[in-house]
Amino acid sequence: MEEKFHLSQRVVAELLGTALLVLVGPGSVVATLTLAGKSVPAVSGADLLGISFAFAFIIAAMVYAIGKISGCHINPAVTFGLAVTKRFPWREVPAYWSAQVVGAVLGALAIWAVFGHSAITLGMGMTSFNQHATSWGSAIFAEGLGTAVLMFTILGIVDSRSPGDLAGIVIGGVVIAIIMIIGPITGASLNPARAFGPELVSALGNGKTFWNQLLPVYILPGLVGAGVAAVAYDFLAKPRLVVEPVIEAVTHPDPGSPEPATSVR
Known about the structure:
single chain; mainly alpha; Glycerol uptake facilitator protein; 10 helices
């Protein structure tokens, strides 16, 4: 019998999963900067790889821990993409989004609690882009594309025709790949809740904020990217009827003859 989980159970799972994602993901950024001290650059290529692995491992862990309960969206963009393609009911989207946002804030508060005020000083692992080095268009495109790749991969590996036991590994792996490419540009949020939580807590601690970038770069592009990727996956992955030439469509082997019919009389 298929297990059914009540909405309250699924919402708590999403809240917990998103909180742990933010604690470990952005938290690894704060930890890296703490260890770097006054090193230049503060985050090296090796550090970026380490941060990407932190994100990958916590996401993989959550896939296996709460995937069976809530689906392990832990990302408003993923929930949106699933709803757009009717894999998830729209009536439950507000509950999931609320849980994810609250979870992200709780995860960010946990970073503050672990590292103290230095977490605020070091930026809370927030995502932002340098407006002097990167154009708004590039930043918007990068976040939309990164989230689209993530969404496309998620749908591919959770497809019943794919090896589902590898879901956590595959999703974690693509997160590493995306962060390594987009991370130096926008911080590779790929998740509106993950972007919002540290931003809010930084504001509460009188730290630096980038509110002007949040909606146009870290929320809307992710939602659009996830939606487009979900629609694209359905277009590619659902078998279509093959249009046969008329002669082949109406010609069938003669049951009384060993040779197949080759023409229509």
